[in-house]
Design goal:
By secondary structure, the chain is of the alpha+beta class. It is 26% helix and 35% strand. A four-stranded antiparallel β-sheet has the order 2-5-1-6, with helices on one face. A hairpin with a 2-residue loop joins strand 3 (54-59) and strand 4 (62-67). It is flat and about 50 Å long. The model has no long low-confidence stretch (mean pLDDT 90).
């Protein structure tokens, strides 16, 4: 099995159209999705990301800080999963409840590099 990151992106206010009851249904759907991935042995970690923070850039010679949400789209969460290949990881991403409750969700599916090929350095992994 290989490791993948699913970066969930959506508009800043992507759930604002939901009633309190619909928002609870969305949260329960996320809990169910996470539970299914755990039962399948596919989930390493999953967490929402708070919509505050900063983007830093520059160098020691001069740092720049900017609001993280300069655009309408932000990262709203991530899933660290296990899958046999990219196609299976994409299939897992397509099951995400974000797609059931909004039409603006995007999920970036990325393989995780476990080892540098040129130096053979293996990146630390606590799990």
């Amino acid at each position: 099995m290989k490791e993948f990151m699913l970066y969930v992106r959506n508009t800043v206010d992507h759930l604002s159209h939901l009633s309190a009851e619909e928002n609870q249904k969305f949260l329960k759907a996320c809990e169910t999705y996470i539970g299914e991935l755990q039962k399948e042995g596919k989930l390493k970690a999953a967490q929402p990301i708070v919509r505050e923070g900063k983007i830093i850039s520059g160098s020691k010679a001069g740092w720049k800080e900017a609001p993280f949400n300069e655009t309408n789209e932000v990262m709203v969460g991530y899933y660290h999963i296990m899958a046999n290949d990219l196609e299976e990881a994409i299939s897992i991403a397509k099951r995400n409840p974000e797609f059931d409750y909004t039409s603006t969700a995007r999920i970036e599916v990325r393989p995780i590099k476990m080892k540098e090929q040129t130096t053979q350095f293996v990146y630390p992994n606590k799990n």
